[in-house]
Amino acid sequence: MTSKHFGNIQMRGLNKLGDVIVPGEGSFPRFGQTEFSSEIDRMLDYMYEDDRSGLSLLMTIFAFTPSFLIKWVVLLSEKNAQFPDFIGAPLRMIQLGLKGIILTLYYSNLDDQNQYGEKIMKEINWSTTVAKLDSDQEVPVMRKETSSWTNPSSDAVTQIYDNARSAEKEIYKMTVKQRRNFITSLKKLILDEKEKIVDIIQKDTGKGRSDALFSEIFGVLDHLTFLENEAVNSLKDAKIKTPIALMGKKSKIFYEPLGTVLVVSPWNYPFYQAIVPITISFITGNSTIYKPSEFTPLKGLVEDLLYRAGFQDDWVQIVYGDGKTGSQLIDKRPDKIFFTGSVATGKKIMSQASEMLIPVELELGGKDPFIVFDDADIERAASGALWGALTNTGQSCTSVERIYVQENIYEKFKTKLLEKTKTIKQSVDKDGDSDMGGMTTDSQVGIVKLHIDDAKTKGANLLTGEGWNGKDNLIPPLVLDNISDDMKICTEETFGPILPLYKFVDEEHAINLANDSDFGLSASVWSADNKRALRVTRKLKTGNVSINNVMLTEGNPYLPFGGTKYSGIGRYKGVHGLHSFSNMKSVLIDSNSNKIEANWYPYTKRKYQLFSGMTEGLFGGGIKNFIKFLIYGLKLESYSDKVGKKGRV
Ligand code: NAD
User: Which of 116, 240, 262, 512 could covalently link to 251 via disulfide, CB atoms 3.0 to 4.6 Å apart?
Assistant: First the structure.
């Protein structure tokens, strides 16, 4: 094992670290058994000198460190998120940096030529074949009739709520750890059956296969993994500080279920919008009534998966129907409504809920800005804009719908974007080999046509997609410029594959343009100057911002998600999201003493004077006041106890 950069000692350290990270299992060899040294120089050649010498020093240290200590450091680095930043950041570097190096060296050798290659490919079931979409395929519905309902009558709605109220009690009895087992089974099932699920999603939505896999399946699995890792910790009783005036007492928060949660979902990500809120509701201990969109019900799929993952009848009930059904379900007063959909429906739901003071969380539409400064990498920014505007054929609440480009790079950016737009491949594909699928509903096709016609009439230039007939649901990418703010495409959510281009002069101009909208869901800021990007980010009135990337906050299940202005109310996902589906019960614990509290009756002149002095001491600041607080506080305590027991004298 030789290297032009590392000596024997460093190679020994690397080997030790490698064996800790990849100890080997089954057909997988240990790190030290592979030919990693053939790749090491290629990797080190790419590193900056400083990083190379840093790594060399670390490997020298590892060479003389016992393996169990290295293992401990690696395990600790996985828990980096639990530490304050000054410890968490170096631990994160260890986790990403060292693991990255070891795994790259390891896997770079696993090709077919390698003695282990073939065996390993077999073990990981390497296959590039994708299940075929069978349009006649029906999903087996294995649930009992009572767990899913279609257009229920008013008696049936009463029954749904009776079921839910009984289910609440069963779910309440389980610990979060017990509930987590069902999440794990569901995750496994979804992973095993992902191709079949993608078939069903495609059948209902007409979206591209890759869109279904990347956004719905991967997103759901990522979220379920988050629940597996974080729910138990986030929902355990939290210890809270107790101020000095309440000395001797303890404060806690219990995260308890709300009861029954009604989830109402839209048609654009029907699988994700089902599983994510249903599982948040379940892990936090609620029973759930789920109403999917009438346009993409995925009929039979969700109940079948939940049933096979072990969910009992009525823990989650699926109710098929349209807006009228949704409204009937609200009438029975769930303990929370989690709604995702349009602004118009959000207003109706909030108004109906307000009559019964039902808490509502609204995840509504957007008109998201994408801001490109002149120092950004134009190639990457143009690719980001293209994907951000076209993913899911633009039918995403956080789709890019306004592209602001600094005027001195505007033409260059526009040329690049147009060039890239021409390469987009569109079809409802069966093998993932297409960029964009079709629109899901005819009415949404109508809205896109309305916005394009309106923009053209008012003077916008349509730079691509002239050949679209205004009816076909395979709408091509539509790049426009010369947009003015009296156009619908500038102010209303289009929810289609549009790329409207605007110019801006400077930072302030870009911020004003981006904030000049009724919506505030998400935004994207592109600049090589990190300080500028952060400055702009702080000034955007929105719920989510990705810097030098697009729609990426949603990609991290640890981050809360939600909007400002007309984009919605509340936050879900992340730890905040778990808490928003919980009753945060504040608990103050006092000891079982016979003491009478100072703020209880009787109120007397003497008590007033002592309380007044104690208040001045407590809030006045400084050591003198602190002593005053202690003296008055102690006197007040003993006086209150005496007068409380003997009565007013
Ligand atoms: P929609 O508002 O038309 O319908 C959403 C759901 O509400 C459907 O299930 C529908 O049957 C139901 N509904 C309609 N009227 C109702 C009523 N009076 N009472 C109760 N339920 C009622 O929305 P859509 O067209 O299905 O979805 C597209 C919209 O969703 C877009 O505006 C998009 O931006 C938004 N969306 C937002 C997010 C987000 O997280 N912010 C995510 C996805 C989609």
Answer: 240
User: Is 323 a pocket residue for ligand 1 (Cβ < 6 Å)?
Assistant: yes
Q: Quote the CA–CA distance of 275 and 263 in Å, as a whole number.
A: 10
Higher pLDDT, 614 or 108: 614
Residue 280 · residue 120 · CB < 8 Å: no
Domain co-membership, 282 together with 207: yes
Catalytic residue flag (residue 363): yes
Q: Residue 133: pLDDT band by 50, 70, 90 thresholds? A: very low
Name the residue at shortest CA distance from atom 15 of ligand 1.
323
Give the pLDDT confidence of 402-421 residue by residue, as tens digits. Answer: 999 999 999 999 999 999 99
pLDDT on residue 45: 84
pLDDT band at 199 (very low <50, low <70, confident <90, very high): very high
Ligand 1 binding pocket includes 444 (Cβ within 6 Å) = no
Cis peptide upstream of residue 602 (ω within 30 degrees of 0): yes
Q: What is the pTM of this model?
A: 0.87
Are residues 522 and 375 part of one domain?
yes
- The pLDDT, as a whole number, for residue 459 is 98
Whether the per-residue pLDDT at 75 is higher than 90: the answer is: no
Ligand 1 center from residue 204 Cα (angstroms): 16
Are residue 163 and residue 286 in the same domain, yes or no? yes
Cβ of residue 268 lying under 6 Å from some atom of ligand 1:
yes
C-beta of 327 in contact with ligand 1 (< 6 A): yes
Active site residue 397: yes
Radius of gyration of the chain (CA): 30
Residue in 397, 490, 492, 554 annotated catalytic: 397
DSSP for residue 391? G
Task: Measure 363 CA to ligand 1 centroid, in angstroms.
Answer: 9
The CA–CA distances, whole Å, from 475 to 365, 385, 403, 452 equal 20, 17, 19, 12
CA of 341 to the centre of ligand 1 (A): 2
Residue 398 lies in a domain: yes
Q: Which domain holds residue 499?
A: 368-559
* Same domain flag for 192 and 323: yes
Atom of ligand 1 nearest to the CA of 366: 34
Backbone phi and psi for residue 320, each to the nearest 5 degrees, phi listed first: -85, 140
The SS3 call for residue 253 is: strand
Indicate if the pLDDT at residue 126 is higher than 70: no
